[in-house]
Amino acid sequence: MIKKIIVIGASGTIGKEVANRLEEVGHEVIRVSRNSGDYQADISDKQSLANLFKNIGSFDSIGITAGEVAAAPFENLTDENYSFSLGSKLMGQINVVRTALPYINVGGSFTLVSGVLTDEPILGGTIGTVINGGIEGFVKAASNELPKSVRINCISPTVLTESEDYHPFFPGFIPVEAWKVARAYERAISGVITGRIIKV
């Protein structure tokens, strides 16, 4: 069945792969990024999200590949670092779900993104671990309460093969290709699971 799917963060490495894969298997894909795509929106700005969904209207699924976190040694982290990260990757994704609920079709789905730092902390990654853990907790809890038989899941990728600049911060980690992460999004969007954290 062809679905109308919104990919938020579609200009990024994972987002491009997710959007392309979903189109390959026949879905209608709406690409959303901050500064490009079919529509523009900033997930850290709730009004921006409200405008986005008002303009798009009804849809079947959302795959989120967006959200930023600050990285620095623990002693150097500031209130601003925490506030920025909470507002972007954590509350940004939560607010996508909250704002989009009136527009999502019955039986639709949300797929959020966390990351390997939930389970495997690294030096300088305290905020990332905190934020990712919050996202995964939200998904597990919200899956029990979403209306209209809507499903929600989370993709937790490790460091990407394509993101070579980040490899030194993940010593001993085995990188994963972005196309494999995209397949995890496809499984979450097109399958029947809910409340799951899919690790890639």
Automatic annotation (TrEMBL):
Gene3D superfamilies: NAD(P)-binding Rossmann-like Domain. The keyword S-adenosyl-L-methionine does not apply. InterPro entries: NAD(P)-bd_dom_sf (IPR036291), SDR_DHRS6-like (IPR051122), SDR_fam (IPR002347). Pfam families: adh_short_C2. Keywords: Oxidoreductase. It comes from the Bacteria. GO terms for molecular function: oxidoreductase activity. Belongs to the short-chain dehydrogenases/reductases (SDR) family. This is Short chain dehydrogenase. It comes from Pedobacter hiemivivus. The lineage of its organism: Bacteria, Pseudomonadati, Bacteroidota, Sphingobacteriia, Sphingobacteriales.
